[in-house]
Design goal:
This protein is of the alpha/beta class. It contains ten helices and 13 strands.
């Protein structure tokens, strides 16, 4: 990438107050805390309050990231929001967030839909736009209200997902440390578009517009073939990580921390085994949040940094997989 590649100036995250523990699901579906934990590693997740929107959560995370970066909203000229659950089908939730945050009207604001890989796609997009020199400071947000698109009677999916938001502020490296270039070192993104049906929301788009029939059929909820998705997730995330490390000439011993998409503990354990990395090199918080899709990695990144797991000069590996089927990896030197 260009020497003008920006760095992450600050991070922020937000999770709704309501905690939904595994035990509560046994009241509505045939499941248990043990069944959920042994198959996913999830113990609880956060659920947005009535009337709390994706934009509301995104704004909380963004404000914390801006404060952490010591950057004013007035200085942001690019906003990229990764989400599959915008407030409205149109316009982009980025426009609503722009207004709530008070970003300049001259700022470029748009949504990006790559599901659980969305934050990596958004990070790569924003870094490329900043590296062009036409933009100077960017706000990248991953935000989801998945509780709005989950079928609470489907035990295969309802126990997996949660709500939340994470954000990063990108800008120029005004205080370089040594001769090593910081920021986004590289990415490896990809898509298996022949497997859309494995993880999707069938209804609501132009191929199946909303109707009484589609609503009655539950077509506006997440549908997933879990076993097939699991296998593809492990393979794609491992390959994306290996390809990127080879591309950048980085070996696994140089990786200070891996922040994977927080979907399933068994997926993370499989990737750790294939990459021959110890589990203590992975940051995991899915036991408390579940799968928050595009918000997953930025929430984990913010928590890891504030917990002291990320230090200046560290090389961090981010890796994700989601509906599309999209996948990707990113290397960042802090």
């Amino acid at each position: 990438m260009s020497p003008r590649s920006p760095i992450i100036l600050g991070t922020g995250s937000y999770a709704p107050e309501r905690v939904l523990a595994n035990e509560e699901f046994s009241r509505s579906v045939d499941t248990s805390d043990e069944w959920i934990r042994t198959r996913s590693g999830i113990r609880e997740r956060r659920i947005a309050a009535p009337g709390e929107s994706t934009s509301d959560m995104a704004v909380h995370a963004a404000r914390r990231a801006l404060a952490d970066a010591r950057v004013s909203a007035a200085d942001v000229d690019l906003l990229v929001v990764a989400t599959i659950t915008p407030d409205l089908p149109m316009p982009a939730v980025a426009c609503i967030i722009q207004h709530k945050l008070g970003l300049p009207t001259a700022a470029a604001c748009f949504d990006l839909n790559a599901a659980c890989s969305g934050f990596l796609y958004a990070l790569d997009t924003a870094c490329a736009m900043l590296a062009s020199g036409r933009y100077h400071r960017a706000l990248v947000i991953g935000a989801e209200k998945l509780s709005a698109v989950v079928d609470w009677k489907d035990r295969a999916t309802c126990v997996l997902f949660g709500d939340g938001a994470g954000a990063v502020v990108l800008g120029p490296d005004l205080e370089p440390v040594g001769s090593q270039r910081r920021g986004l070192l590289g990415t490896r993104l990809g898509t298996y578009g022949d497997s859309v049906e494995l993880l999707c929301i069938p209804g609501g788009g132009s191929s199946m517009p909303p109707s009484a029939k589609s609503v009655a059929a539950g077509s506006h909820f997440i549908k997933m073939k879990g076993r097939e998705v699991f296998k593809m997730a492990v393979r794609a995330m491992e390959e994306a990580a290996r390809d990127l490390l080879e591309q950048q000439g980085v070996n696994t011993n140089q990786i200070a921390l891996v922040i994977p998409h927080q979907a399933n503990l068994r997926i993370i354990e499989a990737i750790a085994q294939y990459l021959e990395l110890p589990m203590d090199r992975f940051f995991i918080n899915l036991d408390r949040y579940g799968n928050t899709s595009a918000a997953s990695i930025p929430i984990a990144l913010d928590e890891a940094r504030r917990a002291g797991r990320v230090k200046t000069g560290d090389i961090i590996l981010l890796v994700a997989f989601g509906a599309g089927l999209t996948y990707g990896s990113a290397l960042v030197r802090w």
